[in-house]
Description:
The chain is mainly α. The chain has one domain (2-130). The protein is built from 5 helices and no strands. Helix 3 (68-90) packs antiparallel against helix 5. The radius of gyration is 17 Å and the shape is elongated.
Amino acid sequence: MMVKQHRNLQGELNSVAGVLQLEAVEALKIIGLLKNFRKDLSDHVCAESKLFYLELLKEMEERGQDTSKTKLFIEEMGELAKEVYAFLDKYQEAEKIDRETAVFKEEFAQILRALNLRIESEEVGVFAYWVPADF
């Protein structure tokens, strides 16, 4: 489930990236894509924090394992989520994207890189050890 959600989120961001490659940027289309992305990201972060990470910490504590690095990893996701939501809040209107296309592209690229890095970190790190294949 989590990996499938990751692929969906990446696909949505790649769709935005594709629109940004067009000669004439379609800001209204980007707004629609980002609204869908926001909802899906919110659902994912909620599921991850309320289901996966709570269960992971519980299991680690039951096994007597140190949870400090895992808690730090979880906190880092919270900070990244704040950055992403701030970006999404900043660009809720097509007119702003039209006025600030170059800045939007730069900030979007940073968000895309950060989320892809986080997804990779989760999938080759935490998920590889703690998540069943179909989760």
